[in-house]
Amino acid sequence: MTDDKTKRMVNVEQFISAEQLSEDLQFSPVNLSDAMMTQASQFAYYAGVNAKAQHQVDRFKLKVEVLEAKLDKSIRDTAADEGKKTTDKSIMAEIKRNPAYVMIVKALNESKMVAALAKEGLEAWRHRKDMLIQLGAAQREEQKGELRMNIGAAMSENSAALKERVNKRTITPS
After folding, report:
1. pLDDT in tens, 114-172
2. Where are the alpha helices (DSSP H) in 83-98?
3. Residue 148: which residues within 8 A CB-CB, separation 6 or more?
4. Burial class of residue 53, CB neighbours in 10 A (0-12, 13-18, 19+)
5. Per-residue pLDDT tens for 65-97?
6. Is 169 left (phi over 0), alpha (psi -120 to 50) or beta?
7. Cα(159)–Cα(144) distance, rounded to whole angstroms?
């Protein structure tokens, strides 16, 4: 395997950035409506990122298995040609020392890290949704309380005004 071909085989795409995820997850009570309106589309985007990252892991697993099989066959054929006896353990040890195999396994591990970040990012969006729901409910309750207080104050003012009008209209005996 050539170095260029091996390097292309082990190119791991970084579908997600922890910094960008953190920035995208942020919101404040001031922009609660905007955060609620963009939640679904952002969740869908990160669900797609998660799927791509998991697909990448699956591709690297397949690459590892294929390379392992090729190396296994090559090692067995060489040993047979030389008349040497081999064991599965010695073959596997030789495979694990192969530079191309090491590079692909490293890429697999890196792709697993990317997939784990994408999965946890998606979970963070679920938590964000729950927080938005709770903050929205608290905000509605707060607004209801303010409305009740405003209604109560308005009723007190109306009651006082009504009493005053009634008092002015009553006829006093002469």
Report:
1. 999 999 999 999 999 999 999 988 888 877 766 555 665 666 666 666 677 767 766 55
2. 88-97
3. none
4. buried
5. 999 999 999 999 999 999 999 999 999 999 999
6. alpha
7. 22
Amino acid at site 79: A
In the chain, helix, strand, coil percent, each to 5?
Answer: 85, 0, 15
- The per-residue DSSP string of 113-129 comes to HHHHHHHHHHHHHHHHH
106-126 in b/e burial notation, b at 16+ Cβ within 10 A? ebbebbbebbebbbebbeebe
Q: What are phi and psi of 16, to 5 degrees?
A: -140, 145
The token pair that represents 142 in the structure block = 């707060």
If phi > 0 it is left, if psi is from -120 to 50 it is alpha, else beta; for residue 171 that is beta
Q: How far apart are CA 68 and CA 80, in angstroms?
A: 18
Both ends of the chain: CA-CA distance in Å?
Answer: 120
The secondary element (H helix, E strand) that includes residue 156 is helix 99-169
Q: Give the SS3 label for residue 47.
A: helix
Tokens of 23: 């920035």
What does the domain layout of the chain look like in residue ranges?
3-135
